[in-house]
Amino acid sequence: MFEQTRRTAVERSRKTLEAREREEEMNREKELRRQNEDLEPTSSGSNVARACSKSSSRDTSSSGSDESSDSSDDELIGPPLPLKMVEEPVNPMEEGVLGPLPPPLAEDVEEDDDDDGDSEEEEVSALGLDPSGARLVTGGYDYDVKFWDFAGMDASFKAFRSLQPCECHQIKSLQYSNTGDMILVVSGSSQAKVIDRDGFEVMECIKGDQYIVDMANTKGHTAMLHTGSWHPKIKGEFMTCSNDATVRTWEVENPKKQKSVFKPRTMQGKKVIPTTCMYSRDGNLIAAACQNGSIQIWDRNLTVHPKFHYKQAHDPGTDTSCVTFSYDGTVLASRGGDDTLKLWDIRQFNKPLFSASGLPTMFPMTDCCFSPDDKLIVTGTSVQRGCGSGKLVFFERRTFQRVYEIDITDASVVRCLWHPKLNQIMVGTGNGLAKVYYDPNKSQRGAKLCVVKTQRKAKQAETLTQDYIITPHALPMFREPRQRSTRKQLEKDRLDPLKSHKPEPPVAGPGRGGRVGTHGGTLSSYIVKNIALDKTDDSNPREAILRHAKAAEDNPYWVSPAYSKTQPKTMFAQVESDDEETKNEPEWKKRKI
């Protein structure tokens, strides 16, 4: 099914390009015809001269004689030759993998839909493409990460999802894993994140203790990150570099602590900050470029001393923005902040193989990459605002000659990515544009799937509202009320005495006007009324008991039947005074005055 879709897309692209070529040919013929009409002579002498000139030029071209033999041939007489008859210069890129990249074949994917100006705050600072080439992810200084689907896009080139995974931190690097199911997000914070293909968070690296001197004893980075990279062979392993002068490797299954720590050092043993890092193609080497201009390469299993160390690869104090390995794993390319691009041989890491200067860069993430066949190296250049256009420059790896360059836009070229399967180049610029360059014959899928699709028209929504029938001569009982505005409806309600009647407030204090005063309106009055009641009992308990004496004597039930035989006559104890009680008490119980 996917193969059939691809074939259909390729056929559509071919038909579209043929139609464009036919239209351009017709336009050129019309232009030539118009020029012929403008140059039509008014005298017969000029006609003869033009005819002679045409015949002589035809004879000269057929016989192959030298044009310098006749001085009249040097003058331009008559209309210019058609473009097909003019001999075109040979493009050095025609022998490459991608072939010539004419600007009309470049499709723009706008990162910012509102402003296309050259604003560094909206630059595309990160690009990532999954291994299959189906989805493109971009990030910028506006904190947004946007997802683009080539198969689902049309000619409008709109992202299908946008999110801010790192809140208010600038996105510095985005990279798909080797399986394409996860994306490594490196921002300006000290904690890298891993999200899935749909943008949901998978893990977040832990932050280290910034008060520990030895960075190897912390569990994570303590300063701003620069970049990150996935391991090309091991699933779930990646590395990051930071301003805390460390390069750390991580595992997705263990976000609470890093796996290993590499500490770049100068020749004197001092700390140095790595600005970029990259795995080799087989994953056995880790390369990092530092702020002192050095490039250090470690064995992945040995974290103490670097395997290769070149201390003056680039100018000290500049930020080397990119290091990348060739597909054969023997050559390393470095893009320096000193406006140079250098090529290194890993087997003889004592001097650069080639060096190209005059490549200005103003961003700490300017890329360089190899072509899929390892024959070309491509990088971007930066320009000041209003001082030209950024370029994509191609160098031949064998001779390191500048063989081709493309004017991208009137802004800097920040990111570039050459996908090996699609054979297409993705470019991120400083004015918020992401461009895709492809060849209609040598490229596969990618932008070719969406460029042939027409832009979807906006769907028109229709609603049916209730119609009001106005009949002035109908009876009032059948007349429907007219629709009024909210303000007029409120004004009408104010005229109604029932709707505008204000409720009378409760009576405070004693009652008046036929209304009883309220009690317990406050908390204190409620407590006085219901809780703090007067419970004084002035009744005589003896009289209360003697009220039942006659009934108890006539109908004894409790005490009298029990003593009817042993003590028929009731006898009560004699009342003793308090003085007698105190006399009978022992001395130790008597009160002492």
From TrEMBL:
Comp. bias regions, Acidic residues: 67-76, 107-124
Residue ranges with Basic and acidic residues bias: 1-37, 479-504, 583-593
UniProt feature, compositional bias: Low complexity: 53-66
Placement of WD repeats on the sequence: 117-149, 218-260, 323-347
Region Disordered, residue ranges: 1-131, 479-519, 559-593
Keyword hit for Repeat: yes
GO CC terms: nucleus; site of double-strand break
Pfam family, one: WD40
SUPFAM superfamilies in alphabetical order: WD40 repeat-like (SSF50978)
Gene3D superfamilies, per database record: YVTN repeat-like/Quinoprotein amine dehydrogenase
Keyword Repeat: yes
Family designation: Belongs to the WD repeat GAD-1 family.
Full protein name: WD repeat-containing protein 70
Lineage, broadest ranks: Eukaryota, Metazoa, Chordata, Craniata, Vertebrata
